[in-house]
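Summary for the funding panel

The consortium committed to producing paired sequence-structure records for every protein in the target list. Below we show the first two records in order, beginning with the earlier of the two.
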Amino acid sequence: MSLCAQCFQEGDHEGHDFNMFRSQAGGACDCGNSAVMKETGFCHRHGSQAQLNKPEVPPDLLAIADAMMPRIFLRFIQHCRESSSLPSKQVQEAMEDSSLYLDLLQDLSRLGAAMRRTMTKSLCNPKVYSELTQPSSHHVNNEYLSQSKVYYEEAINSIPFGDVPPGYEDIATLNGPLIHKTFLDEIVFWTVKFEFPQKLVCLLLNMLPDTEYEDAFARAFVQHYSRISVMLVQSRDSETLSNRVVHVSVQLFSDQDLAYRMTDSFHLLHIMIVSLKNMMKNICIPSTLHDKRRNTHKVVKCEDHVMKNHCYWPLVSDLNNVLSHKPIAVKFMSDPILIQEWFSFLSMFQGMNVNVRELTHHVEFEPQTYYAAFSAELEASASPMWALVSHLKDSETKHYTFSVLRQCLHALSNWFNAVGFARSDMGDPYQVSFHLPLHRYYSVFMCQAVKAQGAQLADVLPPQDLLHLIMVHPLRLQAAFYEILSGMWVRNGLQIKGQAMTYIQCHFCNSMVDADLYLLQICAGELPPDNFIMTVLDRFHVLESLSLSPRASNSFLDSEHEVGILESCLTFLATLMTVRTNIGLSESELAQLEMVTLLCMGDKTHSQLMEYMPEKCGSAAQSRDFEAVLSRVSSYRAPNFEASGTMQQGMYIPRNHVWENLYDPVYVLLRAVQRKDFQASLDRFKLFCKQSGNISNSGNLWPPFRLPSSVRSPYTDPQRIIGCRSFHAVILVLLYNALNEITTNDHLLSLTIYLLELTVEYQAKHQAQGGEVMAAPFYEGITEPDDDKPDGQFSKWFASDDIFTNANTVVSKVHLNPTPSISSCSDGDPSDLEDMDEIEAGVPRLALPGAPQPRPLPLGSEVVVYQQNVSAIVPSGEVPTTPDTPTQDQVSPPLALPPPIGSPASPVSSPVNMLVPLVESSSDGISSQASLPAPTQYPSLLAGTEVGRRGNGRSGSSRNRSRLNPSFALKPHFNRSRRPAGPSKALLPPGSTSPPQLHAGDQYVAIEDSIISLLIKLHSKLTGKPNSYRPNFEEMSDSRIGDGPFFIAKLLNKLGRHDLSAKKCILDTISRLYCKREEDSSASSEEEARAREEKRKRAKERQKRVMAEFANRQRQFMEQNKAEAAEAEAGGNDAMEVEEQEPERHKEYDCVICNQSIPSTPERPVGLVVLLQATSVLGHRTSSQKPLSVPTSDSERIRLKQRRYTLGQYMEERADTLNRHFDINSWLASMNIGWEGGVHVQTCGHHLHLDCHQSYLLALRSQHRPNNTLNVDKGEYWCPLCRQLGNSVLPISPEIGDLSALVKHPSTCDSDLFEEVDRLLNDLTVPTFSTSLTNAMAHMMEDMTVTTYAKYRNVSTNPSTPSLFMFVSSILRTNLEVELVQRGGSLVYQAQDAKMDVKRSCLMPLLHVLGFHSKILNGGGGDFNAGGIGGGLHWIRQTWASISQRPVTGSEGAVTPREREVPLLLRDPVTLLLQLVLLLPSRIDQGYLRCVVANVYRVAVVGAAVSALRALNESQRDQATNTGPLAPLLALAHNTLRDSPFFCDDQVSLPDQPQDSWTVNDVTCQVRETCLQFLRIAALLKAHLAEENSPVIADPIAECGALEQYLGVWDTCSVVNSTIMGNMCGTYRASEVSSPVETRLGDLAGGTRVWCSEVAAFASQAQVAASTLLTSVHFSQPRLLKLPHSYDAIFQYYHRRQCSQCNSIPKDPSVCLLCGTIVCLRETCCKQQEVCECVQHAIDCGAGTAIFLVINSSTVIVIRGPRVCLWGCVHLDSFGEEDRELKRGKPLYLSEDRYHLLEQQWLSHGFDHTNKRWIWHRDIL
């Protein structure tokens, strides 16, 4: 179901789950269609209620339309006929020519139901079509019509259809030409012929609301359906055609009634299946599975474009769609012929894409067609299968399931015959195909019959012989799967591993691996256990690896793979035993298990869980209980941020009880596509155990393998196969190998213990329920005596299948059957031995119990025997035979059948390096043995074992062995040692380490252990302590958390608890093994304790002697040098006092490149790693105190433009006003720039030598790295220590930290400070540095200059010295203002605020560099009138005189004319302060700084007072000058200005404040707020100059007073201390102000009069300019525009919004989050000077930094200079997840935390540090 956006928004869909997507091909809205959705969801324009009371259209109104419409369609058909014979390219052009014509028809269809009805009548009228298209002799255009008909017939014949199966001849659409009766029929044909032109498709779909038309259109579509399959194969753009076909078919076949009518009346199912079969039949090739000579089966060619391009997808999609309707599915399963035809189609996929293992060389070309094969099976086989199964839910539909099963078995039998697969054939071990759809159909339908329909297993099982055959291929597939994971197929390339991973991937596992495992579980429950086990061991090729022979080697597996495959075999058995996916779990339990498995591998988002949950191709079974299961097993972790700033999405994490009770490592292994996922789950499990205290940190945890639940009736528990004696013998061998460290590892041991525990649990439960263990009649006559077990013949090791009996049974010795390595050579050439692998590759082996046996050799061949690297050639004709050599009439037994009676015997080769005659068979079947040399002694191989010689009297035991037909395994590896050293003797009982003896003749290995004794020994070995196991048979804990000893002890306790004989055996074994050992150990422990005590005493005595000798020497030394020591001590004290008085003069820095710690010197200066960037953050401060929002309507956009007045705009207007009224040199010194495009300097805090930096840059330039995001040519580099971006080095002046460079004031009298400051300004000189440091400072200044864009460097058209000094001082102002912004706009400390680290501030070095260049620009050290602003240094001295109200000596006649100079109150006080600081010496005493700050602060206070008065009307001014704490100051200013035109009566009240609510306190607050702007910057400046922290202020109200006290102006000029203010201004009245009290700052009243008089004089000339310049505007903190909570509001407004530049609708619209401008992303329509709009907007709006929200993807991109990065998403769905590109279509909501993080990174200029994935945008965004 799909709805248009308008119908969706107008309908009621509250609480519904929906996806929003952008349709690329149009379509029909389903609103109003009651067959698709309920009427409650209709919008007001659709449905039955919408048509009530609507008048009918008068017939006359549509008369002309009725007459014209047929001819309009006729003209279009004639155009199509004329274009049909053209080449394909010209056909496309012809359809493009008809585009406007189709637009006309679409416009007509949109006129309403009446016009649409007229059009559909014309399309569906056969009479009209016949009259207008048939040629007639009476027709004036008869010749044209005749030619048109010829074109039409040729076009019809140009799309032939394939073969029609027998029985389908009566289906007209499959057999016979197409017959068109209406305009609609022919238009549908041309739609198919021209590959579904988009506009034509939209036209046809737009008329679907008409019911009669819908039925006619569906008939026409079905009529041409078979031709659509032909066009899909022929099309050059099959993907586009497929999408358009499905776009039409889904509209038709989603309606169940319509689809059933098409199926019932027009054979839709038959057409679909025949079309699919014909499509695949044309690309079939001979199958290469098994023996090619006997294989007549054909499979699809996966390399063909039909498979690679998924040309079949529209057909199978439509088939799945119609089969989702139950009536159609029932009709399908009721037709045996149709089912047979379907399985005939599926047989083409059976065994496709065969993989052959490469043995010698790596495959040259890796085929990439495997995914086409997997996709084909999933879409064309599995999807219809699950669609059919979804309707088989009760016993009433059982007969349909049986019908499918019968046809499936028939298809399987036919396939076995076609591929030449016989009962005795086990297949090629070097081949595998992952595709067995027939097996999986049988598995799934059998499972459904038993699970949901109550069928008995016997009713659905095939005969035993067929079940054997069915088992072979899934078992081979499992073995090959684990071979691939173990690296045995590595020469086949990565694609083979991709197949294995896809096989278990979540979208495929239900349809593939789960179905295969279910089939094998059925076989495990029905076939003889011993033979099933031996078959599995043989398929995994591990039988030879289980041999106890010291010389045994695996003929199939390399040594590096041997342990891995053995582990894989046990993993497979554990999976087969414990997985209950289809034989024991309900849907809810299965959903819980799947979800737990996903969560244990890693935390997941909600969408990841939804995506990775295994699905049954559209089945909603798992999703029904999804939320309930999710809440039970997981906890939600809201989106958060890592320490690095990386954003985390909302995640679900497992609850604690999941790890304790539900985590199943076996199931995780089954579902883990990557093996690292399984390891990750284990690591997470161990971490949980350590955090929860379940085990110590040192514990080596084993995987918590779970005990399986019961199987559902009527299934037989597959655990029965591990209850057989053969498997018990295998377990004993594995335990024995683990004890002696032979071909084992920890995981292999844990699996062994787990399988043994499963065996104990299964048999204990079976016996508790009254069952009996299998008796031994099957093995009667072949069981060997207890003291002699044949190696490899595990069925003969025990006399019973009872695990409790077998666990107690002691295996004394194992008879070895050494097998010589034999190669068959045709001509006696030893070089033919190189072909052994190839010979072996073609030899299938049978799964029979017994050791590997030699294959009979052809007569005339030569035999080569390898022993100890010596070969012997046996003459031709003397081929040795053994009693096992079969005759030609012997036939190999079938797979998994009971083995024949008897056991094989093997010849024994000599153990020495010599030629040995082979054993020959005597007539009575008893082998004769040649004389052998003395036996060779071998080192200790096994702990507690012995290799010896068996008596000759045992030779008659092979009386029945000649009946066997053993298989032969060639050995490519010779004499490989498999016996490393055993365990430590200290951990084993005494007498268990005797060296083995290897005797001539028959050999044996002495074991002398049982399963129980091996477990007890393993417990001691793993704990590292003898006799570590302590029996606790009453222990009933269900915990699965522990290490190896824990699980072994748990197993031993279970054995003893369930069986008394096992309990007794355990106790007896412990007593026998460790009692004597403990006695010996206790005696030795006492001796060791005594020895340790003696050793400790001797050590103490030796230590005492050494200390006494040392003390004696020290005393002698002190006596001899007493006088010298006293003198040295006195000198040391003096030195300490000097140090206390004068600390270290030079500060040392650590270079991060050379690691040297030295001070910065002129000869070798040190610099800071800094990043320079242009910034406009300050310029985005707005006058609105309320946050502004991104507009989502036209009215909001207008309101944003009206309210958004920024500091950048204000400063630009101020500069323009000053430029119009004052001398340029004067006004350039009156303000700062840098509010937009200022230079910001930040550092990571690391230092490096300047010469080291140059070497580092040279090294970076020599490295040519692809996709390098560093522009080394422009000085960019990574900090060598923290890897943060840097693009310059800020040199550190040697004056920093040098007390000798500090300029101290000579007197303590404050009145002298004025003259001292003036003297310092007059005597200003540029510091003298070395050439290298001077060049470094010059280079730094150049870097800062080029960092910003040219238009931001100067406010005047012609750069001059004043403008350069303005730029330099503005850099300092920018960095101080930015720091203030980062502190929240004030110096009030709040616990949640992140304060800037003063240690990482680079302001002091920056101040030295800026001061150095300021002094150069102002003529420091040169001629008085050379350079400088306004002629030398006089301008700054004159400014200082105006501020301090003191005369400047020696400066007469050197000032700028007063009428062109900016009045002092119109100058920015912060600018004045920074200019004075830059021109004074860089290191000055705090007294100087306090004097300068206090005097400039007076100007700031008076200016704030005048600005406050300017905002008042006359009555308010009178009130303010008579009352309030600031009344004296306000009265002074008012009395001076009241006679000037500065004040006027048309003033408004304070901004955003009603007139009637005004009080005097408002004026006080305004003055203080204006003064705070100066105080904050001054306080920051002082903190940096003094290298101390800024003051800590907790109360915002007390901020002004606290800063005045910190700066030392509290008692001289304060807007908070009313007493000081009164003393400075004296008593007052509104009309008269008396003389003030003299203060140490001079005459404030006089200064106020002078400064206000200057303003009054200017106001008399330019009243508006004076008022504007003194109007105070308070700007709020810079912030991003606020976004609406719902993303849909943004999307709906902007995705069709026109660009303001080009007035077109952008393909990828983006919105600037700084100013709200919409721009065209990645488009050239708005390009300016080869720079696209986004990049240009970033320069204009953010000085190269801009943040854009990309509307169509919901992502935020950040442009920083020449780079761009994808920052992430600030809108998340209800589960805290991103939806990039809006692919999931879920509703998105604003994440306040993410948006705040984005804003903080913008304010802190941290994008370069927090985002690492930058790319060059190359000006194309």
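The next record, for a separate protein in the list, is shown here:
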Amino acid sequence: MSWSGFWSSRAQRAEQLRRSSQLKLSSSQRSQLLGNFEVRAALQNEQMSSLLPPVGTEVFRRFTPDSPEKNHQKHNAEEEEQKNKQDPPKAANHLEAGKTLPFIYGDTPPELLGTPLEDLDPFYQSQKTFIALCKHQIIHRFNSESACYLFSPFNRLRTAAIKILLHPFFSLFLILTILTNCVFMVFRVPVLKNAEEYVFMTIYACEVILKLLARGVCLGRFTFLRDPWNWLDVLNIIAFVVQLFVLEKLYALTTIARVLKLFAYRPDLKKTTEALIQLVKRLADVIILAAFFLSILALIGLHFFMGVLRNKCLSWSTHAETADNMTTISPLVLDNFTSSFPDGHVNFSDYIHDWKNFYYLPDYVDPLVCGNSSDSVACPTGMICLKTGRNPNYGFTNFDSFGWSLLALISIMMQDFWENLLKLTMQGAGKTSVSVFVLAFFPGCFLVLSLIVAVVAMALAEQKKAESAEAQQQEEEYNRIVKVLKKGEEVEEQASGRAELLDEQESPQKKTLTAQSQEVEHVTMEEHEDDLRPPRCAFAHNILKGDCCGCWRRLKERLHPFVTSWLFDLGIILSIILNIIFMATEHYPMMEETYNLLSNTNLVFLAIFTLELLLKLMTLGAFGYFQDRWNIFDFIVVVLGLLDVGLEGVQGLSMLRSLQLLRALRLGRWWSTLRALMRIAWSSVSLLGLVLVFVVFMFAVVSMELFQRDYQDLVCRISTDCTLPRWHMNDHFHAVLLVFRVLFGEWIETMWDCMEVSNQTVCVIFYMTVLFTGNLLVLTLFLNLLLTSFCDERLTAKVGKETITKWTKTWILARFRTLKGQTSSETEENGRKEQLALRTVTSDQQNLESCHGNQTKDSCVVSPCPADEALVKTGEQKQCEDVQEFKDPETGSKPEDCCCECCYRCCAIQDLDTSQGAGRVWFKFRTACLLIVQHRFFEAFIILVILLSIAALMFESINPQHRPILQMVLDIADQVFTYIFLMEMLLKWIALGFKKYFRSFWCWLDFIVLDVALFCLIFNSLGYSTEPLRAVRTLRALSRFKGMKMVLRWMAASVPSMCSTLLVILFVWLIFSILGVNLFAGKFAHCFNTTSGTFAPEFLVENKSMCLSLSLNSTEVHWKNIKFNFDNVGMGLLSLLIMATSTGWPDIMYSAVDSREVELQPVYESNQYMYLYFVFFIIFGCFFTSILFIKAFIDALHQYRHKVGAKHVFMTNDQLKFHGTVRKMFSKTPEKAVPRPQNQCQARLFDLVTSPIFEIVVMVLICVYVVVMMVETDDQSMKIEMVMVWIFFVIIILFYIEFILKIVALRQHYFSFGLNIMDFVILILVTLGIIIDDLLSKYFISPGFLPVLRLARICRILPLCHWARGIQKLLVSFLMSLPALLNIGLLFFLVTYTYAYVGMHIFGYMKKEAMIDDMFNFETFGNSMISMILVSTSSGWDGLLSPIMNTPPDCDLDTDCGSPMAGIAFFTSYILLYLMLVVHLFIAVVLESFSSREPEELLSDEHLQMFYNAWRKFDLDASRVIQYSQLSDFCDELQDPLKIPKPNTIRLVHMDLPLLPGDQICCVDVLKALTTQVFGESGQMDTLKARLEEKFSIHKTQVSQEPISSTLKRKQEEVAAGVIQRAFRRHHLHHLDKV
């Protein structure tokens, strides 16, 4: 199934699963099914019904000593019946152990629960097994052999053990035990001295003993150790015993085992966990591929940047003259050189390794990384750049070995603190090193991540399709069973009807009297129904229904029309919106009058909502009011508001005021998109979400067990004041926060701390486990919620409940017509027409609230009547016109009218006769212009000019006076480009006319860009600066590249349907921003010491007034607020955007956690539970809203594809042809065979180089070479380096030997294969690198990179591995998505290029602080481009925005002050565009991954041609048959993959080919058998047969097509004939002996 079909059928699958879970037979139907011969005969072919016991036999039979013998006899009888059948019996899927008992068996009798029963599955009845059922109808299967060689199934001890294990109280007891144990893991009780551990271990040991008694040890399929869940018990006991005597940290294994044991006792959690394990198995191919690509990238980083980050600025002031000479000496010589300084006997090695002699930037812990290249960081005067000391970040950030390089690549892939790595690399290796990141690291990491997401999405989709197929099969069988049962009931009813008819003829008054008596009894029961209820209960029931008295009923009748009217709902909606607006106006500092105004408005709105509550209670009654969930939610919100007012002065209850924001969620009653988001959040509280919670808890506890003591003992290594950092594992709260941080991609910094205080290997293993497992669970939960349908929500309310009014245009117009005074019938008819037209036009759009695919009967589908078809066509025509607006106008061979008809009517002189005179000349001139415009050379010339004009932007600078000649050339080029574009526009005006020209969106875009360019020329001549406006030049490229036009066309079409979703996301963020203002407004300010760069201690400065008093005596101290805060809603939204997308979130979070009250000095983690605010924002504001956004994005994409009818919306038609090329490239098409040489020596070499063994040897050689490259390190000794050099030379020589052997054997055919050409080129480059090492290093690229290219040859090993087919599919899917990725990537590059140019001219003079420094700034176009590349990964952009936010006195207004509003608009717009394009990139890969799994032709035309050519050699008459004796030679003649080399007799016999008269074999039968053997079973054989017949000229043959035998039967006949002949010979010889 394609992605489109799968996405459309989400609602069907959800509805099908819901129906299948409710399947149940009544007791009468079940008894009829079990006891009726006719019903069982009609259902004998059904899957479940065929497994029922014979009629008259009990379903559930106790397992007795005679049961095994009966089952054995039954099995022997069944084996006799199965002898002639080819398929052996299989176990029933619906009767597997651990599954719920199917509905056809009914409920188990209570006395048989936990009792050994005979197996219900006939397959296991002969396997010496029995079953036992628990209260939840779960099947448990046991071996009938004696457990532990002692206890038979009838032993009382074993029977009791089984009954205890299956009892629900036992499972509940163990669950409570594990939960209690988890509580003790978190809260240690020193008084107990770990005594509780021995209690828990005793319970777990007793559990293991019971399981051993019930199941046995390991001899049997269903014994204790055969169940992987029981391995947790073994691990629990062994780890507990070992940690007592060997290593205390092994207690972490017991924690893992005990938490995971919790899943084993909940069948639903167990099923979810097993599904996750199966998902991990599906990831095997992509994990191998990811490891391969990451290893390649790690080797690239190793060879480019090995030892670069150790470069440091060393003080050399005492020997300045020597310093100039020492820069040319290699660092290796300096390391080995030891001498003494003249002025002090100091050892040189100790001097260069002393950290006091390094240069440090202010507020930096590590010394400055420098380089000796022109574009790297230069050392200050008096210092020299040497490679010495350790690497940054405790020595863990480097590329000095393969392991560290791989760790750096993982951090780049996860986008965690990678900007620091990029900055350090550029400081040491130069700014050109960013090209390695952009061209190698980023694409490789994107490839790995996108394929992982695609594989997980496909695996989940297949699981959901499998569940849906199983549910559909059960439902179909249920319907067939019910149909058969109803048919039997109808027969019985007809028979009883005849009997009743006879009775009526005998006594005609009998039926009348019976009916009258039943009617009288029914009326009497209704009259006395209320009398049977107690008086107090009846009175309470009337009060709850609102029917206590007549006055109340009359009041209720009068209020009901008002409360249920649309005006009442509209008033409530407006009140909620106004309340949100007033809450959003809160800010800091705020005047007292404003505060009182907001407080009073809050009371007013509280009174309105309380009045609404009372009116609804009076109208609907308490019973009717609380039937609606939204009313319950409204009630809770009003009660919380009243509590807030009543407890306003109570200390510690200020959070109640923040809960008033729940009022905003009441809009979900009317806002369907917000309601969908709330459903997503509620659906996350599922089994998968529960598994994620327990896994987070487990990792938190394990981290405490492993690292808690290390953090306490060695904290001084990571903290100067020996205090614990904010992220540690010393207590459970911080451990959970740390694991949560790792799950959402922030892990590398905390892992460095862990590696510094604890064992490095243990820390890496722990963090990688948490990272992989946690992110896999998060990704699975994300995709599961994404693929879940929420179409089952009720769109209309029931009678008697509150009407849910749709907020649509039709609804509003109809109500306003009512206010105008139109009649009800007219209003209803007009409203019906408009609503019908609206629905029919948007029915194809399938919004979030409607179900996709085949609609069920509950779906809101409106079928248009014939009178409304015109409206439908009009709407569709308008949509098509909207699409046509984006098409190119340069079509047609003749010029059209220049102007529209109204222009000709107003000015008749424009209407010229084109058949004669001046009109004819004008027409020819326009025709010539049209030919010029449509010529491909003209289009190529314009594209060239556009590219040149765009490229010219990179040479501009913010200081043009420094390069006057270049600036003059750029100004002249700007004028030339403008005039060329003006000429193009004039030509198109003449050729196309104004009417056609301005009908195209792209022409309008060119027109506006040209207008801006002319405007710039005019203002530049007047002396004004218009450089930023030149950035609009890049927009011209959008109209010239079809791929980018496809992406833009889709984005423009998706904007309307995405507006509602974006508005909901903004609404949710607004709620969090208002909550942040309520919690943190005015609390982020602090007393700051500018000299030390630290906060003033709280014991010295308590509040703002004390800080201001200190500032009077010292200018170094002042009261300062951080730039990103929650002082108002706007700044709060910006802070939340930084929290969600940038790495600057720690400053905001730490300020919130340290905050106390307004104008009080913050205290370290004084309010640490404020961490939860940011945790909730990440979950609800980022995670759930991302799901909603991508869901709406895919919905819009599905609608657009359905509307335009395109298979792929990101590719052009020419690019779609690339799909076929890729499939053909990776398909097993037969290659043209290389002729074998006639020379004997060459022939032997040919056999050698073409043999698989030779390829395997070459692959082993390449793998050895890869391992050698991985072993290389920066600090290796000279001896190891020489050994590696010699190994390198030996391998090069072996590669030359391979090349010589192949070139001699294959001759000129060597260069016919792409891999051979690649080997030859790489071999030449590597050789040149050895010869001219210095020349390549200085002017070209480092020769150390050239050996990495040899790794490309390792792809040859893939066809030799059994798992290579899955990897090949992944590579094919990614290659097929390359055109779409190229289109989106070009658009992404164009956006980045444009923003870099604009940023250079707007922010080029910013003050250097935060992230703006020598590496990241906007002073030149190159630096601006590097800065935008950094922002493109949503990393560190807050550091670039921070200096722009400076205002006096923090900056100089005339030099380095920026515009905060311009900076916010610049970065936020770029971030939003970036997120949109990244979603496009991932969706493109996922869609192509799905499309690559679609079924395709088994055999290509090349395969069929090869088969036909080989067949033609044996079938000269083209009769489509050959002799059976020729089959062995024919199969050996074929090429791969259909070839079966000799000896092939046994394989051909087992193919069981049909034999025609005359011992002939048909070609179709042979091809079908060969295809089935290579590709497996397929349903495309009819198509394959038709394609094969096209290859033959004769479609009919004289030979009969009816087979008379088969190859397998012929072989059996031959064997039987041989047996008979041998027996006859023996009998004949024996007879002769007697004679």
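Regarding this second record: The first helix runs from residue 3 to 8. The chain has a mean pLDDT of 78.
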